[in-house]
């Protein structure tokens, strides 16, 4: 009998030359995990001289690039499997996020000086990448002013109750600001009356986190975007993640002195990092 993780994978007996019992033949048995057990049992009434069995086992590397479900892809772009693990890489023009899985685009230094041209979001008309923070600047010589005409194929994440809380486009010409724009309705034609403008295309980061009193959070960053994770270093089991809606998956826990004991003139302090502790 072959078992793995309390699951019976197969039970065999009989002879290969007959078809009256279930025998393994050339069948390969694959365990769902890294553990497998084989039980051989015989009773006291062997009527013939049975020779038993001969089996071979081998380790099979898990292909993490294929194991992940569609909802939890191993990598944004390219997944490379190797024995014992995998690593991710990105298409040309993208850089790997600190989570080593998400690919984000570098689009913060785009300067346009021609009198006419086209500007579009990364990968348009395909979905724009996660953690986008793009800055496009148009500079013309004095005597001209810039007019923007957005096409009808406008599609930026919005919210039914709050104006552009996540992703948006803003246009600044020094004195005036146009936007934020989001949703499926095109901003249409915008006359800036300036010869230089900045166009900001932004995916909203999660709010800045303040570490709890008597506690720390790591890593400490100026901004946190989609898929960034933060650990409370006083509690190994607590972790929160910046989600795609621009919100944190949980609240920062309250850390407080839970117990103080005096032993041999030394003080031992333990901390309770459970969320919502009073």
TrEMBL record:
Keyword Cell wall biogenesis/degradation found: no
InterPro entries: CUB_dom, EGF, EGF-like_Ca-bd_dom, EGF_Ca-bd_CS, NOTCH1_EGF-like, Sperma_CUB_dom_sf, Sushi/SCR/CCP_sf, Sushi_SCR_CCP_dom
Protein name (Swiss-Prot/TrEMBL): CUB domain-containing protein
Top-level taxon in the UniProt lineage: Eukaryota
Pfam families recorded: CUB, EGF_CA
Keywords for the protein's UniProt record, in alphabetical order: Disulfide bond, EGF-like domain, Hydrolase, Metal-binding, Protease, Repeat, Serine protease, Signal
Domain CUB as annotated: residue spans: 1-60, 107-227
Species this chain originates from: Phrynosoma platyrhinos (Desert horned lizard)
Disulfide bond annotation, renumbered to this chain: 107-134
SMART domains cross-referenced by the UniProt entry: CUB, EGF, EGF_CA
């Amino acid at each position: 009998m072959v078992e793995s993780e309390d699951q019976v994978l197969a039970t065999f007996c009989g002879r290969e030359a007959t078809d009256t019992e279930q025998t393994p033949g050339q069948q390969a048995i694959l365990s769902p995990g890294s553990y497998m057990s084989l039980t051989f049992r015989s009773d006291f009434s062997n009527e013939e001289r049975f020779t038993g069995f001969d089996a071979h086992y081998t380790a099979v590397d898990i292909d993490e690039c294929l194991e992940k479900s569609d909802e939890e892809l191993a990598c944004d772009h390219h997944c490379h499997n190797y024995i014992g693990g995998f690593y991710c890489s990105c298409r040309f023009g993208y850089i790997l996020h600190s989570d080593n899985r998400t690919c984000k685009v570098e689009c913060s230094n785009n300067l346009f000086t021609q009198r006419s041209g086209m500007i579009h979001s990364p990968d348009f008309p395909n979905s724009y990448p996660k953690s986008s923070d793009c800055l496009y600047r148009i500079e013309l010589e004095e005597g001209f002013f810039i007019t923007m005409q957005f096409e009808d194929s406008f599609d930026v994440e919005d919210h039914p109750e709050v104006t552009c809380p996540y992703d948006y486009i803003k246009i600044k010409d020094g004195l005036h600001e146009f936007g934020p724009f989001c949703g499926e309705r095109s901003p249409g034609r915008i006359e800036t009356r300036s010869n230089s403008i900045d166009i900001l295309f932004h995916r909203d980061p999660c709010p800045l986190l303040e570490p709890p009193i008597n506690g720390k959070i790591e890593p400490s960053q100026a901004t946190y975007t989609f898929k960034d994770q933060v650990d409370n270093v006083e509690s190994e089991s607590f972790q929160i993640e910046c989600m795609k809606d621009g919100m944190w998956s949980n609240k920062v826990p309250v850390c407080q002195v839970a117990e103080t004991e005096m032993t041999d003139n030394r003080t031992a302090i333990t901390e309770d990092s459970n969320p919502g502790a009073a």
